Task: inverse folding
């Protein structure tokens, strides 16, 4: 029986993206075999540690010797067993809870997206990890290319409920420090934070030579603001409520949103980060396919 | 409809309706949907940027909803608009609230139906607006409890004896004064019918009489009843001028108004005025037409004079170009004047129209027997007040005018004969034209036919009614029978001239003709004041006294004409006279001095006039001949002009009765040859009324008081034939015209501005100030037509309703659009 968190691996999404690759535009420090260029010559597969087997672990990495001695299943973990390390940084703050109509909430959309990307990354023999954050980094799944890691990522995401405010700058610094070597950082967030923090975090990642992709997830209602009657807007993340006729504010609101998006684009461009706006009304498979196709086409 | 229901519909419904959007607005504030919102920071920033505009839009939206609802409500309940004004302004509405609701209200409605109320703008007359307001007032009353008395200010009095009964002096007075008709204590339905049926009369407004009547009615109303009084008028200066006297408030009017005010205060109401007139009024009127010679004799040209006046409430009004036309007896219209440029406030007098016998289409037979023609003068283009764009004039063409000259001092020498000069002057009608050696046609200057008679022959005269004018020249005294016949003659409307002289027994004159001011003679005679010594007596000149008198006009029109009187000094002797004093003074028979002798002892009357009955008597204090004066030898034709004018004036009295103002009774003396078995009068509407000749102290008179309509009336004398048939014996016409002063469409102004040619500025303020001045108090209410709601135009009339309906449609459209657009009454989001 499938675990609930396995729902994030939507076959339809995966079918759309299975032929696509997550390519690092920057020179990724890591194993380059085939696709990824590495600054290091040759590669080494060094044993790192044992850990207990969890369902889903690749039985190829079962340490039969240890099993023979202890009658327990241990999985051998190796350093640098993959070509590159990708960390998916998923915003789980309260603002990500927003959804309009039949659309998924931004967080759910982000979770599906993170799962799909992680699946894709692992499928191409790269390592995928997860960082869940709001005000701070809450959950950390180190990048690895294993079914176990993927399941851990899914389970972690599944258990996570949106709460608290966003503090992306501090989180990105933390992620950069945890990641260590250069790799890929995929940020999935609505970015509703002080853009100075975002800028600081991206600049930190850029300084560490990470290849950064910013997925700015927004609900279509947040982008279009097509409310047509008197509405009380209940603020999330400790923001105040506002009772207002949205029609009278729409123009000014859209100006603010467009300004915000343009500013994020500008910050990403300066930090050499890839920016992609993700609309939760767009089918995830289509959206990812479009983005990854574009990214593949621009591959260096 | 009950008052409470009108109030409910008139005010309650619009007010309730107006609260609907507010309620919706408040409901909406509780029926909003709630949305968790992530992008709150953007929203707050946008809100901060647009907060003021948003609040303003919300307010405007609310106001528009309220306005739309009010418009709809007002369109559905037009009376409500009036009522709102009532409650805001009208004392009737205001005070009803403070009255005992069970107290009956007696509403006195003074309705101005004078001629000026037919002034029309945009297919609506002042009277239309007045009636609509009056009906609204009546609708506001409570049936079976309140009642209405309608006082019309300008009804033409039609005496009860229209069919031929003799008009009493009171009847005549009533007709002349413009009757104020009172329809007392009408129930509301009757009042509505009466208001709807009321027509504009072609006469002026008798405001003072209306107020006097209103005061009487108010004071006779039971004490427990409240009295309200509303005066609906156009407040044009012509009718309201009488509320002043000598450029100040008329004490009689002030006293009357205060009596009304006192009674109204007992019931808690205020005197209310409703101004139904228009502003920026302009009216070109034919203010008068007349025959220069009064009566046109056979062979004379008919000289007609026309006066034009341009009344404008603003001096900034445009100059108007006016062309005059005429038609005879309803025939083909013909122009007779070039274009006349009329600046606002101007008047043009004596625009001439001369018509020959041929142009008058007189037949030979008519020249012998006499005839009458109606000349209609009209402006080429009608304006806002149509009633005065045309006037009718009936002219009489007579074979001759018989004048009896009684010679009291005949002499074989014509130069010394008492009446030689006078007969020659008055009979100049038979003179040939100057320069015509003979054989040419006779040109008649006057229509007079002079019949001379010695004084002693007077006693043999049966009746003076065969003459139009009797002149007594130096007649010693008069037998009593003659005095009586002369009195009858003058009373019937003819003229008498008395020349003095050395033969006159002035004491007998005083006792028989003056009678302490009650007789024919205009003044009490005294001793001669000059000298008849031709060798030594100084000569004195003449000074015009009453320059507006018709006889004097010819001399005062130009300086050259004035000199005809003032240059020569022809008077040597005259009789001193005493003008009526004390009890001898009769206001109805004012004495007027036309000319004075400029004597060293002070001005002495030379020519004195006084009416008697329907006729007039003129006394000349010197002789008709050159015995007491040198008039026939020193003057530049002074006596010729003066006595011809005098004769024309006095013989034209009968013709004057052929051209009347509306309401003025028609009178005709029947000579023996005029008497017929039957008489009928046909009015301009075609209605025929049979008249019966009446005897008044021996006179045969025809009198007709039904001159209520302007136009031409015809009087026909008929013979009765066997089988009930009739045959016309003779026919005459008489014209009835609207009173000229009803053409003045400028509003009343305070006294200090009254002398300005055209008052500028705010008409409402001026009317308000003028009323305060005239009434002597300020606690009255003035409501103006068109200001019931917003001052943009009258609510009344189809036009007004159409505008309101359009506004209502707009209001509905707005509400529909706004509702669809915003989903005003939508369910809140879950």
Result:
């Amino acid at each position: 029986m499938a675990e609930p968190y396995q729902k994030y691996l939507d076959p339809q999404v995966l079918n759309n993206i299975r032929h696509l690759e997550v390519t690092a535009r920057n020179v990724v420090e890591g194993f380059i075999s085939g696709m990824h260029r590495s600054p290091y010559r040759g590669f080494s597969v060094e044993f790192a540690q044992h850990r207990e087997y969890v369902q889903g672990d690749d039985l190829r990495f079962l340490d039969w010797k240890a099993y023979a001695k202890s009658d327990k299943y241990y999985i051998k973990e190796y350093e640098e067993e993959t070509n590159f390390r990708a960390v998916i940084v998923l915003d789980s703050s309260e603002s990500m809870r927003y959804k309009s109509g039949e659309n998924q909430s931004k967080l759910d959309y982000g979770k599906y997206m993170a799962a799909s990307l992680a699946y894709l990354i692992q499928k191409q023999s790269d390592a995928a990890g997860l960082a869940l954050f709001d005000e701070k980094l809450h959950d950390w799944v180190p990048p690895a290319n294993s079914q176990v890691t993927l399941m851990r990522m899914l389970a972690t995401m599944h258990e996570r409920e949106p709460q608290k405010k966003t503090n992306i700058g501090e989180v990105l610094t933390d992620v950069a420090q945890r990641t260590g070597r250069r790799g890929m950082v995929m940020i999935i967030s609505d970015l509703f934070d002080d853009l100075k923090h975002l800028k600081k975090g991206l600049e930190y990642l850029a300084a560490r030579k990470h290849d950064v992709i910013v997925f700015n997830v927004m609900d279509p209602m947040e982008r279009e603001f097509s409310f047509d009657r008197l509405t009380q807007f209940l603020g999330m993340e400790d923001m105040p409520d506002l009772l207002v006729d949205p029609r009278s504010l729409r123009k000014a609101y859209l100006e603010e949103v467009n300004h915000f998006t343009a500013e994020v684009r500008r910050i990403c461009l300066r930090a050499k980060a890839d920016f992609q706006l993700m609309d939760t009304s767009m089918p995830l498979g289509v959206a990812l396919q479009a983005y990854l196709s574009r990214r593949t086409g621009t591959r260096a | 409809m009950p008052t409470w229901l009108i109030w409910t519909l008139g005010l309650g419904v619009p007010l309730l309706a107006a609260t609907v959007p507010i309620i919706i607005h408040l409901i909406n504030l509780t029926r909003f949907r709630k949305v968790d919102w992530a992008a709150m920071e953007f929203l707050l920033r946008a809100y901060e940027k647009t907060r003021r505009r948003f609040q303003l839009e919300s307010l405007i939206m609310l106001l528009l909803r309220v306005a739309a609802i009010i418009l709809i409500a007002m369109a559905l309940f037009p009376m409500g608009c009036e009522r709102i004004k009532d409650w805001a302004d009208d004392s009737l509405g205001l005070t009803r609230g403070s009255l005992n609701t069970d107290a009956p209200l007696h509403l006195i409605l003074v309705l101005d139906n004078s001629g000026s109320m037919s002034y029309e703008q945009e297919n609506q007359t002042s009277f239309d607006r007045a009636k609509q307001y009056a009906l609204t007032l009546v609708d506001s009353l409570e049936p079976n409890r309140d009642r209405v008395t309608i006082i019309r200010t300008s009804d033409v009095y039609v005496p009860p004896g229209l069919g031929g009964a003799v008009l009493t002096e009171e009847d005549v007075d009533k007709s002349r004064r413009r009757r104020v008709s009172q329809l007392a204590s009408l129930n509301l339905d009757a009042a509505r019918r009466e208001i709807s049926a009321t027509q504009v009369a072609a006469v002026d407004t008798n405001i003072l009489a209306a107020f006097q009547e209103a005061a009487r009615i108010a004071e006779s109303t039971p004490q427990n009843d409240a009295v309200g009084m509303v005066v609906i008028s156009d407040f044009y200066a012509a009718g309201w001028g009488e509320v002043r006297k000598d450029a100040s408030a008329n004490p009689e009017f002030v006293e009357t108004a205060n009596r009304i005010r006192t009674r109204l205060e007992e019931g808690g109401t205020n005197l209310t005025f409703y101004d139904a007139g228009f502003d920026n009024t302009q009216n070109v009127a034919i203010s008068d037409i007349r025959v220069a010679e009064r009566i046109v004799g056979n062979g004379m040209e008919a000289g007609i004079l026309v006066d034009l006046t341009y009344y404008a409430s603003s001096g900034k009004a445009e100059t108007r170009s006016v062309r005059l036309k005429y038609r005879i007896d309803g025939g083909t219209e013909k122009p007779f004047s070039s274009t006349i440029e009329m600046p606002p406030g101007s008047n043009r007098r004596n625009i001439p129209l001369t018509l020959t016998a041929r142009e008058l289409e007189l037949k030979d037979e008519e020249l012998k027997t006499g005839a009458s023609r109606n000349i209609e003068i009209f402006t080429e283009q009608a304006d806002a007040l149509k009633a005065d764009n045309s006037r009718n004039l009936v002219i009489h063409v007579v074979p001759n005018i018989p004048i009896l000259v009684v010679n009291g001092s005949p002499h074989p020498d014509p130069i010394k004969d008492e009446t030689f000069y006078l007969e020659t002057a008055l009979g100049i009608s038979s003179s040939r034209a100057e320069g015509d050696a003979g054989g040419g046609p006779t040109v008649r200057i006057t229509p007079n036919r002079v019949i001379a008679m010695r004084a002693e022959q007077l006693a043999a005269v049966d009746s003076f009614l065969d003459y139009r004018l009797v002149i007594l020249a130096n007649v010693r005294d008069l037998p009593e029978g003659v005095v009586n016949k002369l009195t009858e003659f003058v009373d019937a409307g003819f003229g008498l001239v008395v020349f003095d002289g050395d033969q006159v027994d002035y004491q007998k004159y005083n006792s028989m003709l003056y009678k302490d001011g009650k007789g024919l003679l205009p003044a009490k005679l005294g001793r001669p004041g000059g000298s008849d010594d031709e060798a030594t007596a100084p000569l004195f000149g003449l000074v015009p006294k009453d320059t507006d008198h018709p006889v004097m006009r010819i001399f005062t029109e130009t300086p050259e004409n004035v000199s005809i009187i003032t240059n020569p000094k022809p008077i040597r002797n005259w009789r001193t006279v005493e003008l009526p004093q004390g009890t001898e003074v009769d206001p109805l028979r004012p004495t007027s001095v036309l000319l004075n002798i400029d004597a060293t002892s002070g001005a002495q009357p030379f020519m004195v006039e006084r009416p008697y009955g329907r006729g007039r008597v003129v006394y000349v204090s010197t002789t008709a001949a050159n015995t007491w004066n040198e008039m026939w030898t020193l003057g530049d034709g002074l006596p010729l002009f003066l006595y011809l004018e005098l004769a024309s004036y006095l013989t034209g009295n009968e013709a004057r009765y052929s051209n009347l103002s509306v309401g003025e009774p028609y009178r005709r003396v029947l000579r023996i040859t005029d008497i017929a078995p039957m008489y009928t009068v046909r009015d301009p509407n075609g209605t025929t009324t049979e008249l019966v000749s009446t005897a008044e102290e021996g006179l045969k008179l025809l009198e007709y008081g039904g001159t209520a309509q302007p136009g031409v009336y015809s009087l026909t004398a008929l013979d009765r034939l066997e089988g009930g048939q009739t045959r016309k014996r003779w026919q005459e016409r008489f014209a009835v015209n609207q009173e000229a002063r009803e053409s003045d469409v400028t509003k009343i102004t305070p006294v200090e501005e009254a002398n300005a040619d055209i008052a500028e500025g705010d008409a409402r303020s001026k009317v308000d100030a003028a009323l305060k001045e005239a009434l002597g108090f300020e606690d009255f209410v003035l409501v103006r037509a068109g200001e019931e709601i917003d001052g943009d135009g009258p609510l009344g009339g189809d036009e007004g309703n159409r505008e309101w309906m359009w506004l209502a449609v707009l209001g509905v459209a707005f509400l529909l659009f706004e509702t669809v657009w915003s989903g005003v009454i939508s369910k809140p989001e879950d």
Notes: Residues 4-35+82-297 of chain A form a domain with the Rossmann fold fold (CATH 3.40.50.410). The longest helix of chain A spans residues 246-270.
